[in-house]
Structure formats: structure tokens, C-alpha cells
């Protein structure tokens, strides 16, 4: 549909950008759904996240299949890359937050024997 108006390279770039945006939104919806379920909050909001997370990428791919049929693969690639990158970024951020209290605990443990040694000398 857009092939005669825009060059092939521009169509592929648009398809990748659409895919990247789809992946980010899909990760956000998936994250909200998973945190709701693991937090024990099974309500209408959780059901909405579940249905939206399932139907959103399907709707985007159907729309792109009609508008950009030759570039559907690029939309899928962009979506996959964005989902994987978002998951890795989230994992790194969460693991850094978990490491910070351990470092504080380790420094307290190092200080504790020094205090005991001082009390033993008295």
C-alpha cells in the first residue's frame, strides 16, 4: 500500500520503529500483568492487562500486514529485539538494586569483628 509512495529502505525503518514501540508497550503490559499476579492482586485490572497483553501485538501485526505486507518481518524483528532488550535492562536494574543491600551488610560484618577485638583487649 505504501510501496509506491515511500522508498523500500524508509518502509523498513518505519517497520522496525513500529516493532520497537510494540515491543516496549508489550513488555510494559507483561510486566504489569506479572507483578499483579505475583503480588496476589487478581482483579479486573489484572484481567485487562492479560487480555491487552495478548491482543495488542496481534492487532499491531494485523494492521502492519495490511499497510506494510512486505515489511512484516521487520516489525517482528523490532518487536523481538525490543522485548529482549527491555527484559535484559529490567534484569540488570533489579539485580543492581538487590546487590546494594548486600554490600552494606558486608561492610557491617567487617566492622563488627573490629568492635569485638577492641572489647577483648579491655
pLDDT averaged over residues: 80
User: What is the domain tally?
Assistant: 1
Looking at the chains present, what oligomeric state does this protein adopt? single chain
Number of helices: 3
Order of helices and strands: HHH
Note the gap between the termini: 87 Å
- Give the structural class: mainly alpha
Low-confidence stretches: none
Radius of gyration, in Å, reads 24 Å
Sheet-strand content, in percent, reads under 5%
Q: What is the strand tally?
A: 0
Largest beta sheet, briefly? none
Helical content class? over 70%
Notes on the structure:
With 122 residues, the protein is mainly α. It has one domain (8-121). Helices cover 86% and strands 0% of the residues. It has helices at 8-38, 44-67, 72-121. The radius of gyration is 24 Å and the shape is flat. The chain starts with 7 loop residues before the first helix and ends with a helix.
Detail the topology: elements first, then pairings.
Layout: H1 8-38, H2 44-67, H3 72-121
Which descriptors would you attach to this protein?
single chain; 122 residues; mainly alpha; 3 helices
Quick summary:
This protein is mostly helical and 122 residues long. The protein has helices at residues 8-38, 44-67, 72-121.
Amino acid at each position: 500500500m505504501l510501496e509506491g509512495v515511500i522508498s523500500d529502505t524508509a518502509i523498513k525503518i518505519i517497520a522496525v520503529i513500529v516493532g520497537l514501540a510494540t515491543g516496549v508497550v508489550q513488555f510494559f503490559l507483561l510486566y504489569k500483568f506479572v507483578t499483579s499476579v505475583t503480588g496476589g492482586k487478581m482483579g479486573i485490572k489484572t484481567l485487562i492487562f492479560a487480555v491487552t497483553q495478548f491482543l495488542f501485538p496481534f492487532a499491531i501485526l494485523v494492521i502492519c500486514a495490511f499497510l506494510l505486507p512486505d515489511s512484516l518481518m521487520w516489525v517482528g524483528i523490532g518487536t523481538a529485539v525490543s522485548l529482549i532488550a527491555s527484559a535484559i535492562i529490567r534484569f540488570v536494574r533489579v539485580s543492581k538494586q538487590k546487590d546494594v543491600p548486600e554490600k552494606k551488610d558486608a561492610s557491617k560484618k567487617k566492622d563488627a569483628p573490629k568492635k569485638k577485638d577492641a572489647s577483648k583487649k579491655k
